[in-house]
Amino acid sequence: VSLTQHAECSLILCQGYKYYFIKEPKTWEEAQRYCREGYKDLATVPNMTYMKTLYTDSTENQGNAWIGLYSISGKENRRWHWSLPGVEFNDKDVKWSAGEPNDGGRYLENCVVIDSSGGLLDIGCSNVHSFICYNEQNKSLHFIDNKKKWREAQSYCRENHTDLASGAEQLKEAVSTFKSSDEPRSWIGLFRDTWRWSDGSNYSYRHWRDVGELPEELSETDSGTRKCAMTELNKEGKWKADDCNTGKPFFCYDEKLILINERKNWDEAVNYCRKHHRDLVPITNLEQQELVQEKAKNASTPHIWLGLRYSCALDLWFWVNDQLVCYENWANDTDTGDCNLAVAMETRGEHKWFKKNDAEMFSFICSLS
C-alpha cells in the first residue's frame, strides 16, 4: 500500500451506527423504552471513534445524557474484558499466578498486572505500576516505565499508541517484553466490571471520568445507587455513573448493518444487499471489524460473506464498494491460486478472514447506508 493510499485510508470513518440526541429528560428506563420504540436502543459506544461521533452533535449542550450502559449489582456478576476494542476475552488465553484471581485486598480487585514470572494477578485499579502499550500501526509493544493507575495507563496508551496490551498474542509478547525490565509488576489491558450494554452487546470500551466514579471500585459493602452511565455533553464526553431514576436527556442509536441469515453464494449475497439495502459489508478498519464480528455472532453459518473479492486480472483484492483494502485480518497469507475467491469471516473464535470459493453458501451482512 502506497503512502497516498495510507493517507486515503486514514480518512475513512466507520459508519455502523447513527446516534440521535433526545433533549427531553427521562429516567434511564424511560429513555430505554423510548429508544427501543423509535430506534434500535439506548446508545451503545463500541470504541473511541464512535465516542467522538456521539459528542460531536452535543458540544453546545451542557450537563450529562444517558447512554445504554448499566451495572448489575454483585461482584459475582463481573466479566473480564480486554481493553483493546475487538479483542474478546477467553480464559484459556491467560495464565494466572497461583491462587489468582482472588479479590485479596480491601477493595475489589478488577485490574490485572503481569509479574516477573509471566503470571497474572488481579489487584485494585488504583494501585500505581509501570505498564505495557500496544501500537496497532506497527504491531509493536512498548514498555512504559512511568507508574500510573490502571485507567491513567489506559489513557496514556490510547493517546500515544493504541491501547494497553490485550489478547493472547500480545500477552505472549508482553511476557518477554516485561522480563527485560527491572519492574516487579506492570499493567496490561485486562479488567473486569459489572457493566452491560442495553442492547446485549459485549463491547469492552469504557470512557470513565475517574475510577472513583465506579460503584464496583468501592468496598464490597457499598450498595450505591449509581447504576447507570451518562456521558458529559462536552468535547471530552467522559462517562460518570448516576442514579438511574434521575431525569436526563439521552442518546439513542440505529444500526447501519443487518445480518441476513440466509445461505447464499457470494454473488447472490452481493445482489441481495444491493437490491434490499446498500451493499455487502466492507471492513476498512479495526472499529468496523469489531462491529461486524459482534453482529456475526448471531449467524447460522460458521462463516459470513464480506464484500471482499479477488481479481485475477488485476492480481489484487478489492472491496465491492471500491474502498481501499486498508485493514486486514487474514487467518493466513493472501497468496491466491484460484480466480473464484471471495472472503468470509469466521463467526466464532478470533473472527479471522478466510479465502473461500465464491460458490460456497454462507449467511452475510449488508450495510444499510
TrEMBL record:
The keyword Lipoprotein does not apply. Residues 14-134, 136-253, 252-367 form the C-type lectin domain. The keyword Kinase does not apply. It holds the Pfam family Lectin_C. PROSITE patterns: C_TYPE_LECTIN_1, C_TYPE_LECTIN_2. Keywords: Disulfide bond. SUPFAM superfamilies: C-type lectin-like (SSF56436). SMART domains: CLECT. InterPro entries: C-type_lectin-like (IPR001304), C-type_lectin-like/link_sf (IPR016186), C-type_lectin_CS (IPR018378), CTDL_fold (IPR016187). This is C-type lectin domain-containing protein.
